[in-house]
Design a protein that fits this description.
The chain is mostly helical. It has one domain. Helix content is 47%, strand content 0%. It is elongated.
Length: 86
Amino acid sequence: MSVYKSIMQGLDEAVKYQEGEVGARKTKISIKPVESFTSEDIKQIRNNLGLSQVVFASSLGVSKKQSRLGSVADISLKALPAGSFS
């Protein structure tokens, strides 16, 4: 199927759904709040990973200066590899 035909099919299905002519699968998701970390928690995580302040801050997308000001505590640690906190 061409890209054009695929897009047109999708649009046609969306219109039919909106008009109640067809049903659609619905999925309900929930999102857990991001954990809060104290500066001591963050220091322990960084030390457990064996990272310098500069490298750790960079992996979170902040500068070393921001990490010293405590801004790292407001950053999600999702960017770190799985199992980093053990």
